[in-house]
User: What shape does this take?
Amino acid sequence: MASTPATVITANAIAGQPGSGDAGGALVMAGGAGGTTNNVGGLISVTGGAGAGTSNGGAASLVGGAGGATSGLGGAVAVTGGAGGTSAGAGGAVAVQGGTATAASTAGGAVSLTGGTSTTATAGANATVAGGVSGTTGAGGQAIIVGGVGGTTSGAGGAVSVTGGAAGTGGSGNGGAVSVAGGAATTGGAGGNATLAGGAGNGAGAGGTLVMAGGAGGATNVAGGLASLTGGAGGGTGNGGAASLVAGASGAGATGNGGAIAVTGGAAASTNGAGGANVQAGGAGVGTGNGGLISNTGGAAGATGTGGAASLVGGIGGSTSGNGGAVAITGGGSGAAGSGAGGAVAIAGGAALAGGAGGNASLAGGAGQGAGAGGTLIMAGGAAGATNVAGGLVSLTGGAGGGTGAGGAATLAGGVSGAGATGNGGAVSITGGAATSTAGAGGAITAVGGVGTTTAAGGAISITSGAGGTSGLSGAVTLASGAGGTTSASGVLTIQTGAVTAGAGAASGAITVSTAAGATGTSGTAGGASGAITVQSNAGGTSGTSTGGAGGLISLLAGAGGAVVTSTGTGGAGGGLTVTCGAGGGTNAVTGGAGGSVSITAGAGGNGSTASGAAGSITLTAGAAGTGGNVAGGNINLVPGASVGTGLPGELQVNSARGVFEAVWQQDLPGSVPVTGTSYTFFMANRAYRVVSASCICSSSGTVPTVNVTKDTGTTAPGAGTSVLTGGTAMTFNTTANTRVTAAASATLATVALAAGDRLATVWGGTIGSITGAIVSVVLVPI
Assistant: This one.
């Protein structure tokens, strides 16, 4: 051994010589150098002694020297692999390994790297595991912490735990942070990746779970630690780093699914705490940059599979009476200082490719359960932001057709009733918005069929009530204008066909108001009547002390004929007005049905306490001729209905009584007494008439004279024609003065019909005597 500074060797210790006013002596332990080329250097081994019986093996300890009493640092301990050979040899490895257990079921020795303990307010010393520095272009050495391999049968691999130090027990210091960060790059290189991955499964074993969890709150009312996944900040004009959460790919076999991703707010464990919110927010834009997009997209399908659904579902309500969570999709608000529009919300079915149908877009209220009503579906345009600005539009438009395809239908349909006995189908209500301004009009409702092109018709508008059940009436259809204000009339109701294009001479469309035919009856059941059509105005309003309102006027006005712009054409005829009742049914009937009647009745006058109102008049006025030239005015033509066979043709009646005027033979003077067998012509027809009846009367008669009435035609002498009375029987005067005697006309139509030039004559018979004041009257009707 050398002298001072020397190594001191005692019974159980090897130590450097203590310093005497200078540094302590070094203790160097070195294996011998290899003697010749390629020989290994000598080994240095520091090994604790073996324990005996149940005693522990002796520790092997490398401890730096204690620092000086004032401010000297404790001596460092360095375990360094040997330097590699000068040509190509790698540096020697350093292995720190716990001892291997030899007995059954005993643990291997632990390996612990711990920074030194500090005092008072000084931080504990770092424990650093770092890969070696690389050469000029080589990669830095890896720093690897690997759990021990599991037992050969079913032992789990050893866990790797990186845990920040616990805070001191007596104060409020924070627990130590744990940072996993890729190495920083220099001079343009990319930063090193930081990867956290669960271990790979083997055979049927699942891959290891990767758990990132904020720390639990330490005491009552303290929040749990935040778990944050944030992409790196961009430099200069570089984009910020993406934050990507990607589930694992499925295995290569036939049926494995890709891994799911679940982002779930924390569950509340308190009495009434709300579940944690789940917020997705795109990054805020700066200047003219857009805000970051949020996209939720189902996965792409395989060759014939359906694309993955994208589902937004509110949380389930509480088990007793909690409501289900709402789902709100709201476009972003515009900037506070400018005039930007609020963000749009678009819900659209997916576009099809290569002939497939487009995806449906469905908005539906939630289904009710038990006695609960189905959820309401509300579509409402946004409220206007300021005075005099229109509210947002609500538009429901079928999709445009492609090529020769029809445009998509737009349907508003009330819901089907439940299957029970009394549920009604859901109503459909389309209501214009109410005005809340001082004098604003209510919102209009417009139903317009689509415009046709070239020779195709415009789209029809059909309003059809629902069909009745087995014995129920079909639904009513009501077109009603709105009620008038306090002092204003109710709204006008106009039914009008569309205007035609000028130049082509096309007629405007007709208006048809018709009821359906009555139902066909069975062999023993009468056929159903066709529904009635009623055009009726309502009664005028009542008044307390003033004049009551007039009943509503009904006008049937045919259109005026078209004018002629130049002086060479002829003006169009005015439109006719035809009121025709239905014909009676007759096919295969034993007795044909009667034709329908036309009844025009003026209104009755009202009953007054002092004077009654006048009854309404009926005026039939033919059209006046135009102002130019010599043109006749329009006729009023009354044509009774024709008869069949020996039936009596229709006649013009007044107050349901036959006959319009009378032809009369009158005795001029008391001395002008007719002579038996003589005849007197008293009427000649200038147009066609029909004899309806006859009667006679006298002031006095001492005898019993008779009188007949004949129709004389051509050159027939008076009284030589055919009697127009029933059976040709003459009338016999009543011997009681001023007593009228009547006779019916013949039932033979040819007998009672008069043509122009035909005449009526009286034929006297019986005992005439001294008759005075005799009158013979024949009732006629024009035909």
